[in-house]
């Protein structure tokens, strides 16, 4: 199976919060812009999340993520579903508290239209999450 980036211009993205509602500097668009200078920065609070609604079904197989050290998640829960269905848990990932790109978290391959990544336990005292890069890879169906 060829592995390719699944997020495209037609993927609808939502996030739980943005630091001080400053979407220009810390908004969801920075998750995928490929710049080392920009990031999505959540506001404080537990259980921050990102949802991705793909324009057509996909089979997710890998997740690449780059946090800011000190603002990472100890536990990432992946949930997914097909259109019109309820989210179901796919897997749990345990990232490192590091600024390094964490590549190839293998995900149980699942066909879905919607993916939700919940950052359940932040290393930051206030519960903030900072992500410089989010890559979702797999196969478009």
TrEMBL record:
One GO CC annotation: nucleus
InterPro entries assigned: Galactose-bd-like_sf (IPR008979)
Pfam families recorded: F5_F8_type_C_2
SUPFAM superfamilies: Galactose-binding domain-like (SSF49785)
Subcellular location, record wording: Nucleus
Principal location class: nucleus
This protein's name: Nuclear receptor 2C2-associated protein
Chain's gene name: Nr2c2ap
